[in-house]
Design goal:
This protein is mostly helical. It has helices at 2-15, 19-26, 30-37, 45-54, 59-63, 68-73, 87-110.
Length: 111
């Protein structure tokens, strides 16, 4: 998720937030935050939502180098399929789906 780490750092710096501020806002350790920002840990769906809230951004703007609307707009109507996406776009969608599945499984185990 190279786009995620680049976007996360850029948005944090643009806001003037320190890594300590981000960690405190997310209720994680600063080390855990560094793991996210350096790409050593993939964020959960919940973490992505909290990051988007703290940075006043959308989740798609955090994880993709192109807005999801632009990715979809670039595909002709009726031709949206895995083959119509670039490799980077496919990777982005796969990460989103993996995180959603992890969250659903965790919720089901907790129920």
């Amino acid at each position: 998720m190279e786009a995620f780490t680049k976007n996360l750092r850029a948005r944090r710096e643009r806001k003037g937030f320190s890594t300590a501020h981000m960690a405190a806002s997310l209720k994680i350790t600063e080390e855990q935050y560094h793991q996210l920002e350096n790409g050593h840990t993939d964020p959960s769906v919940d973490t992505l939502k909290r990051l988007s809230d703290v940075l006043n951004s959308s989740v798609s703007d955090l994880i993709s180098d192109r807005p999801v609307q632009q990715i979809v707009q670039d595909v002709p109507i009726g031709h949206f399929s895995p083959e119509s996406l670039s490799e980077m776009d496919k990777d982005t969608y796969i990460k989103i789906l993996e995180n959603q599945l992890r969250t659903l499984l965790a919720e089901k185990k907790g129920a």
